[in-house]
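Re: [help] complex structure
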Amino acid sequence: MASDALLFDVGRRKPTTRDVADLVKSGGTAALTEADRRADAATYQEVTCRSALNPVKGMPFNWTLNPYRGCTHGCHYCFARRYHVQFEMNTDDEFASVILVKKNFVEVLVRELDRPAWSREHVAFGTATDPYQPIEGHYKLTRGAIGALARGRTPIGLITKGPMVVRDRDVLGDLTRAAGCTVYMSVPTVDEDAWRTLEPGTAHPLQRLRAVRELVDAGIRAGVLMAPIVPGFSSSREKIERTIKTIADHGARFVGCNVMYLQDGTRTHFMKFIEREFPSMLPRFEKLYVKKYPPDWYRKEVQAMVKVLQARYGIMRRDEAETTPEKEQIEPEQVGFAW
Ligand code: SF4
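Output below.
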């Protein structure tokens, strides 16, 4: 099979993600014999990408960038788990332990940004995988891509849970001046139990918030996404208030939130995880997640609570404030729920 030759011929072109999927389909991830197993127990498979900018439909942006696939952060709620089946890998351990590295990512991106037809539309960076994987310290693909985007005057919004983003404040600053850049640090909660349980491979939430402060101090527009808020783990009023207060204390420029949704392989993984680790919670999750999202009333309660607290701690987004004239009238008592 052609893909076998690509994997075994050291020094030749790296396999494409399709080659990797074919190989894994025939022999499991053990067939990735050229992959590099690191001390963090993850396996890194270099691949060749044909394109870097990925067009998407039905989102608030038209283009995404993801130098890696799979994520060692291994959050149990991660919506991107379901994408790993594209590579014939499972949404459980293999999502967090087999990382595809698009070795030629930066050079492909540079070519795409240089095309006369490129319209310099806003690009969402890190939508399918955190772009600050630990191995980014070695490959520097995210850093190289940000530099290319600055030279190509293309604005981005970058989402991450990785404090390593501070390393790149110089190129993020270049991009801010050249085209515009927003860093969305994902900190769903500062509650240590919830963090340890739900995000086993991520940096401590306070470390992430210190990174936000450093970025803001460097002149970069950086804020926090409390996403997702996970019912039963990080949804109590006390935890949400503590999180928003801590975010405000760290100088975040804005805060946004969303309640967890579960779809396809992500749903399967999360429910298995709950059944295994917290069996008594399973019936409540099954009731709350009959569909992809919990019922509207639940999401509205969470969002109302967050709005109240954003206003209290002075970090409501200006655009939200302008479009929510009744914001001050939402009473905290209206949004008291336990789960
Ligand atoms: S850091 Fe982001 S991409 Fe990685 S597992 Fe967590 S939610 Fe998914």
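Confidence is low (pLDDT under 50) at residues 1-11, 321-339.
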